[in-house]
Fold:
Amino acid sequence: MGNLTSGRILDACRSISFIDLGNFEDFRTALKANLIASKEDEPVFDALFQMFFHPEDEWWDAWQEAGQQENLGSVDESDLPESLKQQISQLIEELEGEQAEQIPEDSDGPSYSAVEVITNRDFAEFYGKDLKEIRRVIARLAPKLATAISRRTKVTTRGSTIDLRRTFRHNLRYGGEVLRLARRRRKIKKLRLVLLCDVSGSMDVYSKFLIQFVYGLENELTGVDAWVFTTHLTDITPILLYRSFDDAMRQMGDVVRDWSGGTSIGGSLWEFVSGPSKRKINGRSVVIIISDGWDRGDTRVLDQAMRTIKKRAFKVIWMNPLAGSPKYQPICAGMKTAMPYVDFFLPAHNLDSLIRLGKTLNSLAQAL
Structure:
């Protein structure tokens, strides 16, 4: 690689600002396209690249795997994307001098980073100053996830954007000379989100965190509709457009009947199916139901409502705070009735759960 010039190095640095650094293949291809001058340089580059990044390390394998999960069947909901870990780490560092909780150094147990502690800590354990901290993290994270979900493109011959990855791949046969440009443009079809959040008494500890996350998505994504329910259904989509989340919560408290009261999941979902769903759900809709599944109503109504939602929607996601426990089994009557119609069953008890939801939605947006 004797022809490596400062200009090539600058081009390589500029190129990585246009790619997803969490994608191993894109990163490697961008460097290779700018740093080698001839086909003879390829084996030298490959060897140096491998030596520098130590492929035997665990983080390297994890990075590769994160960029290779193309189909929905291979999405491991227990994994945390490295790029999102980095984003959360940056968010925590930016929090006005406040530090996330850390396990003492003299503890007998293993030590964890601030990122690991705050992402895995149950929402029910936050209070006081820590409560304000996690709220700020959620407020900053939701827009980042929303942006990732909306940045979906498709391959085309007339798009205005050059697809660097496919361009480099197609031109390898010509010895690295760029003879054909692959293009892309945004997909016309976009993922629509329909969120139904249980705010009954049994969900009280978690509902405000989850609604704040919904608020963050609503303010960044188009095509998001949200309802909350106890014994009745309430459309909160207009309220989520308020500039202040605190103002939105106060307004919700005024208009939502029986907040923190009893619940009728089946009755509320049937109310949704009989009315709003006819206008709001189509083949591009992902319906997200956030509830612990404790329903005292007639399970036959819940079964009929879930069957209808499943038939009309693209995918159905059920998020349950109780699923955060390794011993949890969906054996209560409400969850047993709903499970046959659920495509993704996710926990909803901590920040990691919200990141998993973002990863799942990202995969669904790419598949649509």
About this structure: Residues 230 and 263 are 4 Å apart (CA to CA). DSSP finds 15 helices and nine strands in the chain. The first helix runs from residue 6 to 15.
